[in-house]
Amino acid sequence: MREADTVVAEDTRHTRPLLTHHGIEARLESMHAHSSDAKLAKLVASLQAGAHLALVSDAGCPVLSDPGGRLVAAAREAGVRVESVPGPSALTACLSVAGLRAESFRFVGFLPRAGSRRKRALSAIAEDESASVLFESPRRLLATLRELHPLLGGRRLAVCRELTKLHEEVRRGTALELLEHFASGVRGEITLLVEAGQGSRDQEAILEAALEMAREALKQGRRLKDVARELASRSQLNGQDAYARVRALRAEMRAALE
């Protein structure tokens, strides 16, 4: 960074103390999610004029789910040479320290926040036999764990918090166990690892747990339609098949009482 004409950072308030500590006097510019196209064009023009820019990230590796990716793409399109100086990466650090099955993995980045896109993304994680690595906001971690719980069965996860930093924490367990551990809240940069699946064995375990839920719900007198809807949400069954399963369960339970 000493050799750079300009250091480009997501948040200059985080990067300036680092530069000051090392006595680096390069000009500091911001490049964040709300930076304008004009700002981007200005930075690319300076590169084309021969300036040397250093792109840094607030935490982890630059341009992985990071607004700096816009600058790299624009620089490449303009024919500017882009070099990488590898630094800490939450993605590889999480895989290294979690100790979960992850011979192959898929990087998910940040999940959609709501709607059908989020449901599809969570289902894809549950159905994938490879491990999944995703970034998550501490404000949304508990919601994500709650939604993953019925989809994953006994598959384990690792919540890796503040990796390579002072308050680093790695906590492993099922989604339910992690929900209990972090019930009072969590802070910091979070990387979530879902271990590799075991194909049909996982799906069988998930279906059996969902059917047990349906049995208990029927015992409580809940309506078939409501139980079927919840069964479908907790398994890979479609709505019609879930309703048929619930009707069959009710018939079995009635027959057992006769």
Distinctive features:
258 residues, alpha/beta, Methyltransferase, Cobalt-precorrin-4 Transmethylase, Domain 2, 5-stranded mixed beta sheet, 3-stranded parallel beta sheet, 10 helices, 15% strand
Q: What does it look like?
A:
By secondary structure, the protein is of the alpha/beta class. It has helices spanning 12-21, 37-48, 68-77, 90-98, 115-127, 141-152, 175-181, 200-219, 224-234, 239-257, and strands spanning 6-9, 27-30, 53-56, 105-110, 131-136, 157-161, 169-173, 190-194. Strand 4 (105-110), helix 5 and strand 5 (131-136) form a beta-alpha-beta unit. Helix 6 packs antiparallel against helix 7, helix 8 (200-219) packs across helix 10 and helix 9 (224-234) packs across helix 10. It is elongated and about 85 Å long. It starts with 5 loop residues before the first strand and ends with a helix.
